């Protein structure tokens, strides 16, 4: 096989994405890291780049299957499925696809908040079932504009969310590792203090071990009975058991969730709840954005194989 | 009966709203204009103000039932149910409740757009039915940020919508009776030309005979197969038959509708459509906003009965 073989990994690369990669470089495809050991050793020797997609873990053991591996190009901004420390030890570069998905994720975050506060799911069901004509109006619900919003993790996506919320006349508060230059937003050095100060809490942290359960039971309960939590980051960043308890017991008003532990086999306790908006981790799921992500993934691989500087390196 | 009797009209005034009015002034309650003729003539003589709510027509004939009527205070910004010309002829003042509901209506408009483009109804069903775990991801959908938006009717609500959309990095176009001072938004003197120029068309017209079918079949078709129409004004402002045809035939991509002809007995053709977000005319339906509307309605009545200037007169 040729020198620069590319392995496309992850079951969820779609036909267009596979086609774009395969037409650029000779490529092999496997359904995720578990299938890598089953490849012929000679084929493995040829692999210099991995186009990675999905949430199955890619650890040092899988990297060691490819003696000539130079780059793992992740599809997505979150690369918590890849053991970056193990990659760095082995001299393997990791790239991701930041920025191109910020808008989509922020759009969905804002819409989940409004859908939850304005009971849009109930509204839609009320129209479609004919209950509107039979029973009259739906119960009054909750105003969105003018409340106070908190952002946990003021990275690129957090800022996009905050910029949109500012147009809804919200005071913006945030928590991050350090205070940042912002247009008058209020910094809190503690996530519990942030939750206490706001009506709506948006979780926009990176995933991975460092942020596991970062939005703690104490933070969730500090939001209070009028509080709404929106998570578009990773299921791991929030204490999910505490969140379910709070939602079931009315300790907070509601939630909008695009991410969960053990996706897509999510905790069935969520399905019994009426005070949540549930989305299937589709934050970046527009045609336009997924195409931009696939192109950036491929451009990182091209840059590596051409010996140029990587566009969006992680390590 | 006392001199300043108030008649609360409209079946949909809730207990809190009735209570607020009744504790302020001696009051009678009837379920809408049809029931007015059934009141005792002596009681009718005492009526000086009508607190009006609902969409049943209040014409000159009903006004003539109340020889001492001075003001009809409408609950809502849209007063197309009230024959204002007939009121003016009779020296009867009409008031409405503008501004206090702008935020809620604009919030819902934006959320309907995102929900439609990002297929949030399908996303929610996918999670709740377990299809996510069984079948994988939902189909990719449509990016919202960065498109071009058009506003038909750049009044107070239209401006609130445009201000929010600007935070989603949209170019704003609009059509109104005349060009207005705006932050760089593009004016079109024709609604068809506006529809041709934009991806998303928001209808924020006042209701009434002057705007009946204003968003015409030609305008709807000019939006094109990628176009999305959002209506938060009145069902009358859009040629609804043409809209249904366009949605059924894929001449436009979708719609988000909070208002319909013949609410709540809406055309069943809507219920067969998957490319629409349907809400039960709940644009102003938050607890906070409805309370503000009821207070402003009562404050207009107070001002009239005290001989002070009306807060938000229509005629």
Automatic annotation (TrEMBL), chains A, B:
It comes from the Bacteria. PANTHER family: 2-HYDROXYACID DEHYDROGENASE YGL185C-RELATED (PTHR10996:SF178), 2-HYDROXYACID DEHYDROGENASE-RELATED (PTHR10996). This is Lactate dehydrogenase-like 2-hydroxyacid dehydrogenase. It comes from Rhodovulum iodosum. Transmembrane segments: none annotated. Belongs to the D-isomer specific 2-hydroxyacid dehydrogenase family. Residues 110-283 form the D-isomer specific 2-hydroxyacid dehydrogenase NAD-binding domain. Keywords: NAD, Oxidoreductase. Residues 47-315 form the D-isomer specific 2-hydroxyacid dehydrogenase catalytic domain. SUPFAM superfamilies: Formate/glycerate dehydrogenase catalytic domain-like, NAD(P)-binding Rossmann-fold domains. The keyword Chaperone does not apply. The keyword Amino-acid biosynthesis does not apply.
């Amino acid at each position: 096989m040729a020198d620069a073989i590319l392995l496309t990994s992850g079951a969820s690369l779609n036909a267009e994405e596979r086609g774009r990669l395969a037409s650029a470089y000779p490529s092999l495809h496997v359904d995720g890291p578990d299938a890598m050991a089953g490849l012929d050793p000679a084929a493995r020797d040829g692999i210099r780049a991995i186009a990675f997609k999905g949430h199955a873990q890619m650890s040092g053991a899988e990297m060691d299957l490819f003696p000539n591996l130079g780059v793992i190009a992740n599809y997505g901004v979150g690369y918590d499925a890849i053991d970056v420390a193990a990659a760095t030890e082995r001299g393997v570069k990791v790239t991701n696809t930041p920025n191109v998905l910020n808008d989509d994720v922020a759009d969905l975050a804002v819409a989940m908040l409004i859908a939850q506060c304005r009971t849009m799911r109930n509204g839609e069901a009320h129209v479609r079932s004919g209950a509107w004509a039979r029973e009259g109006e739906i119960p009054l619900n909750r105003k969105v504009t003018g409340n106070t919003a908190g952002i946990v993790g003021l990275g690129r996506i957090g800022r996009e969310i905050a910029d949109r919320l500012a147009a809804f006349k919200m005071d913006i508060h945030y928590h991050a590792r350090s205070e940042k230059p912002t247009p008058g937003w209020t910094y809190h050095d503690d996530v519990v203090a942030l939750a206490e100060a706001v009506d709506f809490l948006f979780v926009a942290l990176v995933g991975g071990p460092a942020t596991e359960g970062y939005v703690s039971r104490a933070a969730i309960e500090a939001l209070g009975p009028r509080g709404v939590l929106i998570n578009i980051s990773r299921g791991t960043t929030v204490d999910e058991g505490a969140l379910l308890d709070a939602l079931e017991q009315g300790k907070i008003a509601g939630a909008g969730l695009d991410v969960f532990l053990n996706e897509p086999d999510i905790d069935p306790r969520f399905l019994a709840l009426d005070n949540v908006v549930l989305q299937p981790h589709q934050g970046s799921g527009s045609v336009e954005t997924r195409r931009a992500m696939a192109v950036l993934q491929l451009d990182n691989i091209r840059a590596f194989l051409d010996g140029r500087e990587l566009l969006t390196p992680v390590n």
